[in-house]
Structures are given as C-alpha cells and as structure tokens.
Amino acid sequence: MAEIHLKDISHAYLPEPKGPEDYALKALDHVWQDGGAYALLGPSGCGKTTLLNIISGLLTPSEGAVKFGKQDVTNLDTAHRNIAQVFQFPVIYDTMTVRQNLAFPLRNRGVSAGDIDARVLEVAALLGITDRLDEKASGLTADAKQIISLGRGLVRQDVNAILFDEPLTVIDPHLKWQLRSKLKALHREFGFTMIYVTHDQTEALTFADKVVVMNDGEVLQIGTPEELFERPIHTFVGYFIGSPGMNFLAAKIVGNQATLAGQSITLATSYADMQNSKIELGIRPEFLSLHAPDHKTDTGISVTVQTVEDLGRHRVVKVDAAGSLITVLVREGEDVPTGDATLVFDPARTLVYRDSRLVEGAS
Amino acid sequence: MQKQTNQKAWFLVLPVFLLVAFSAIIPLMTVVNYSVQDSFGNNEFYWVGTEWFVEILNSERFHSALGRQLMFSGLVLAIEVPLGIFIALSMPKKGWGASVCLVLMALPLLIPWNVVGTIWQIFAREDIGLLGHTLAALGVDYNYTQDALAAWITVVVMDVWHWTSLVVLLCYAGLSSIPDAFYQAAKIDGASRWAVFRYIQLPKMKRVLMIAVLLRFMDSFMIYTEPFVVTGGGPGNATTFLSIDLVKMAIGQFDVGPAAAFSLVYFLIVLLVSWVFYTVVTAQDAEANK
User: Fold this and answer.
1) pLDDT tens, A178-197?
2) Nearest CA to A86 among A25, A157, A18, A159?
3) Is residue A294 a part of any domain in this protein?
4) Which residues partner with A316 through β-bridges?
5) B223 phi and psi, to 5 degrees?
6) What is the SS3 assignment for B221?
7) What CATH number does domain B60-288 carry, 1.10.3720.10, 1.10.510.10, 3.40.50.1370, 3.40.50.80?
8) Tens digits of per-residue pLDDT, A12-67?
9) Chain B residue closest to A94 (CA)?
C-alpha cells in the first residue's frame, strides 16, 4: 500500500481540448494519504467518475501523472495497479458460484489453488457470506451481489486502494446503512485507502474522514466534514453541503460594515478591497436566530416571516428581507415570531465571499 | 368481483381462427388426407393406411436425403455460429464504423433466396464465373456440376455467405447490451481476453445465441431454393436435400401419397428437434436463475 499522488492531472474526452470548458476534469494536484477514507462528492456529471477511473487506470489522463508511492503508474494498465473498484451496478460473473467469483481475480493472477481457497474463506468470513459460497452468484439479491463485487477487491491482499463508484445506488435504503457500516468497519480494521464516489452528502459525510467536493470538473474543496460545514471555501460547497444549504446574500462591505437588503450589520472582522466584484455574505441556517421586531442588536436586520416548515427536531423558517429569501433553522422549543421579526447573524459564523470564493478578513 | 361469462367473446377470436384455419390447418389436413390414400388419377382415392409412412421410413432414398440434410445443417451451424460470434466480437462498438458494418452485414439478408442461388451459380462457374474461373486458372480442379465435393463446398459456402450475418447481428445485439462496468471490472480482476469472452460475453450472449442456432437449424434444415438453383440437387443426388427430394417426388414424379407422408415425417422431425432444443434451453435457463 502506498499514498496516491495525482500530479497536475486534467482530462478531456475530446482529442484536442481548446478551452477550459472542454475538460471533464480540470487541473488537480492532490495526494491521497495511505489508509485514508475519502469521499468524492458532487452532482451528477461533475467529473467524479472520471477522476476515479484515472486512479484505477481505466482512463489515462490527458495531462499529468499518477503516482503510487514512488512509482509512476500513469501508463500502467488497470490489472497491474492493484486497485479494486466497486461499480454502481453490481458486476458478478453469472455462470460462477460465489466462491468462484471471489477466486476469479486470484486465479487470473496465477495464485496456487491452496492459497486461493484459504484466502477466499478468509474474505467470505469477513463479509459474512461463508454459508453462501456454493450458491450461484446470478441468483443473489443486488446487495449480496455488491458485497461479492467488494469481496473480489478484498481478496487480493496487495490492493493499493479500493474505489467505490456510487456503490449503494441500487441497494434498498434499509440495507444501505448496513453496507455502509460494514465498509466503515472494514476500513477501521484493515486500513485500506478507500475512495468513495457519491452524490449523496449523507453518505459522503458519514463515510469519509476527508470529503472532496467537485463541481463542473473542478475540485472546489477538500476537507473534513466539519471544515466543509463551517468554512466552505466556495459558495457551491456551502450550498451543496448541509440540509438546508447555506444562505448566500448579496451585500456591500466597507470595513466591518456589511449592507444587505438596505440595512447594515457589523461583521467580526474588517475587509479591504471589496469594490468592483460580486460580494456575498454566507451563513448557515443553523447560525441565524429570530427575535421580536423590537430586539436591539447591531448584527441583525428586520425581516418578515413567510413560511414555517416543521421537521420535528427543528423548524425550517423562510424569511423575506427586501425581496431575498433567507432560510433559518429554529430548534425545537424556541419560538418563531409571526409577521415582522429581527434576524440576528452570528458574526463569528458569517462568512464573506468574493466572486463565489471565501475571503478572510483582517481583524 | 363476480366473474362474468360472455360467450360472445368467441366472435372476437373468429378472424384469427379462420385465418389460421385457411393458412395452416386446412392445407395440413389435405396433406394428412393424401398421406393415407392412393390414387390412380381421375380423382379416385382409396385408403392405404400407414403404408406410405412405412415405405418412406424404410426407403433408402429418404435415409440418404436425411443424412445429407443433417450433414448440411451440422456443417452450416458449425461454421456460421463460431464465425458469427467472431465477426460480432471484432465489429466496432460505436461511431460511424459500427453503422457501416451493420449495413454491410444486413445486405446479404436482404437478397432473395433465388437471387443468391443465381449469384453463386454464375460466380462459381468454371467458364465465366469469377470464382470458378480463378480457381481453374490457379490449377484447382473445381467443377461443381460434376464433382460432388465441389458442389458441397459451393452450397455450404453460399449458405455461410448468406446467413452468417443473421448470427452476427443477433450476437452483436447481445454484446451491446453488456454494460461497460463488466469490462472494467474484468480489467481490474486481471482477466485475460479469453476469460472476458468465456465468463462475460458468452454468458450474456447465450440467449440470443440459442435463438440464432434455432433459427439457423430450422432454416438450413428446410433449405430448398439456393441449392436447387445452383446444383439442382446434383451432381447425381449429391446435394439432394430433403426438400429437393420431396419436390422431386411430389411434382416430378407426382407420387402424391408418398410425398404427403414424406412431408409429414419431415415436418415432425423439424418440430421435434426444435421442441427438444427449446425445452433443453429453457430448462437450463431456469436452472441458472435458481
């Protein structure tokens, strides 16, 4: 096992890419630490699978190099990279039994029959399918098939990384949770590098230590779930992660004063050079609070409550501030004013974005 | 809900019933009628029972025609099925190349049987045919009108030329239904080209291959037009297959009774082989999906 280094890679499916819009994957330089659990998160068509296929060697990147440890594997084929990959739809060899399916990658690599038997039994025990080894693989349910796909990866002891390409798409919701816990347990026990592609943020945030958020062929942010939640460095990340997503409000900023919807609030820090570009304030619905209209504060604005949606543990309130809608999360037990109200921002949690990118203020 | 009985519904199936009656049942019954009677003309018939069947089943002529027929179908299947799979595997999967290949492949299937026969009859002629003349010029002793082996080769090659496309198209359809993930997984599992064929492509093609084999068996077993046009069943009786023999008997010699018995036996053989084949295949399928 080794760390995986993607060195300045980018990929275009067209033979002669002209502009940045021709690239399915825009320039990226990243090291995947050995033994890390990563999630690649982004909407459909954002280049997640392209990135995954570059790592597994099913695709050769148009530019850049892929390194496993010290070894450059850019032009090495998939079979020799020692990568395991689980696909969206379960791939099993129909004519074989479960046992033969698990043994297949080893047989292809010329491992001796005795070693294969031992290893297959070991993996089957790990996945809890020992009693089904002699069943025909074609008759199994989708989740069992997916476990066998995973088993074919685990059966090789020398795998550098296990890649998952939306592996739970075809699995029943109540089994998703079980499978995900199984993956987590396997990761903890064996420390394989795992890269998990998904467009479901819950899956990504619960599975991974580090989440890579992608949009439109570009990696926007790589960070822990907390970092993505608290300091999204791009408005897309803020909007995509979290439910409901982050609020972004057009504003004007001079020093530590922000003007939005015709009213001004005081920020925690000062910002310079905020003219001539698109400025937005970003704040999570969790960090906003609603108070009575006569509440005195310099970090709040007057708003009108529009709708209240009760989700049990909390309520999602939409408030109107001079035409722009803001989402507020109100915890159980707190009051929601009706009609006019004061919306108070938590200054420490109010972030400033210039042209969709996070700007750090000077205190 | 109460089930309602409405006998008028039978009228709705009447058109189909009439159609099938006139196109299949009545002609078949006529044949059955002829097969159990003898006639000396003048539209006078008398009952002979199973005499014609006994005669046909014991006749050297029927046995040898059946032998030739089985040999022909066997040869044709043994060549067309592997060749068809091979061509389907080598065809491009997408792009303009795929479309061009598909059109080229479909072309032989669009040519009428007797035209195919005529094409090959001329093509293989030693005096003016491109193939026959070239072979003769190269010093190969090839004359399908006199040499039984040459006649057989011509007839078999002609059928391969005409019908391999059908197998190709069916296999190609089977192959294109395999998702990319299977090939990618096979790469990751380190599967060889042969293993990919054996464990992914062949199992996925199995159903269409069964259809291809069944269709090619039935068609080749009933072949008439093409060999009739090329060799007329000759030289001697070398390429006289069952249907050619049957036509000779029924129309050439006007032995209506034996010919009718012959056609019923012929029909039952095709039906039996197809039924056995179908049963075995569906039983296997059920087994695989258990």
Assistant:
1) 888 888 888 888 788 888 88
2) A159
3) yes
4) A309, A329
5) -60, 140
6) helix
7) 1.10.3720.10
8) 887 777 777 778 888 888 888 888 888 888 888 788 888 888 888 888 888 888 88
9) B203
Q: Is pTM beyond 0.80 here?
A: no
3-state DSSP assignment of residue B286: helix
Bridge partner list, B39: B45
Whether B187 and A58 lie within 8 Å, measured CB to CB:
yes
CB contact under 8 A, A79 and B181: no
Q: How confident is the model at residue A204 (pLDDT cuts 50, 70, 90)?
A: confident
Region A304-328: mean pLDDT is: 87
For residue A338, give the CATH number of its domain. Answer: 2.40.50.140
In angstroms, the CA A58 to CA B185 distance is 10
In three-state secondary structure terms, A218 is strand
Q: What is the pLDDT of residue B165?
A: 94
CB A211 within 8 Å of CB A38:
yes
The size of the A-B interface in CB pairs under 8 A is: 62
- φ, ψ (nearest 5 deg) of residue A161: -160, 155
**Do A323 and A221 fall into the same domain?**
no
Within 8 A of A153 by CB-CB distance, chain B residues are: 188
For residues A220 and A267, membership in a common domain is answered with no
